[in-house]
Amino acid sequence: MERYPEWASYTLGVFVCHSCSGLHRNIAQISKVKSILLDPWSSSELEFMDSLGNNACKAKYEQIVPAFYYCPTQKDCMLLRDQWIRAKYERKEFVCVERQEPYSAGYREGFLWKRGRDNGQYLSRKFILSEREGVLKYFNKHDAREPKAIMKINTVNATFQPTKIGTAHGLQITYLKDNSTRNIFVYHEDGKEMVDWFNAIRAARFHYLQVAFPGTPNSELLSKLSRNYIKEGYMEKTGPKHTEGFKKRWFTMDDRRLMYFKDPLDAYARGEVFIGSKENSYTVLPGLPPNIQGYHWLFGITIVTPDRKFLFACETEEDQKDWIAAFQTVISRPMMPQEYAVEAYFKHKP
Q1: 154-201 tens-digit pLDDT
Q2: Rounded to an integer, what distance in angstroms lies between the CA atom of residue 48 and that of residue 25?
Q3: Which of the four pLDDT bands, split at 50, 70 and 90, describes residue 344?
Q4: Rounded mean pLDDT of 122-136?
Q5: Rounded to an integer, what distance in angstroms lies between the CA atom of residue 294 and that of residue 52?
Q6: H helices of 213-298, where?
Q7: Fewer CB in 10 Å around end: N or C, the chain?
């Protein structure tokens, strides 16, 4: 929320930012909003606001928010913020634990629209999430016995991607298949359904990590339940010999994996690059080495790894600065013990 919010719900007694004031209007039967500066306020309304306020409302409406439940911020997509407001004030999910069953039960099944890998068509697919089995799976036919894909919870990630997918409720699910990233794009018309799936996946990941890393503080585990990408966008790239022409590709920086795709909604990456830390001889430099040809975009980036150099070109100087900042974030972070195994796999990849 903004530091000095300029809107308030005079029926709930909370101060909200301009963006969330619009979402509160979606539940007008519960929350009525006014501008603090522009609208008239009666003395009884002011007394009501004074008697409550955000801390009192938080204590009332957020009594039992599950540790794994994603509490959105101003930076998050509209769907997450809208459903958080509805869950809190309209459905009162965090006052009554029974109302949390859709994402707390450890098992969930339902139908989602899934994008076809080859033709881009969205078709209804049955999905099952089972904490006991430690998997998320989906079925191509409604009566199929065998799932089309089994995704192990330990590698699953989910992130809302409304702009990229082109629908407000679009969710990108990724998992590792033979240590390569596989993308699945899904949505559902019902916003609650989609956010319940998202939090059910987070719950399954939380309980998996609690078992896999006993004794680790919950605060450490919670940051690993789901992740947004560090950066995405188009760059040009050339091949390992640096002699081929540069080709425009869609890049995704997912933790330490830099992946590139021909199309942003491709199921598989064309390639993945592991980005380690500066202590392990990874660096990022602006510009390209001399004598390099074949690029169309002028703002180059060179990533130096212990084995080779990767060359990229950005369309604008601003893009170049943003990508360098994203790479620096990753390179300046020391590697975790388990990341050395991932690095070793990339080095020995055929």
Answers
A1: 999 999 999 999 999 999 999 999 889 999 999 999 999 999 999 999
A2: 19
A3: confident
A4: 97
A5: 64
A6: 218-222
A7: C
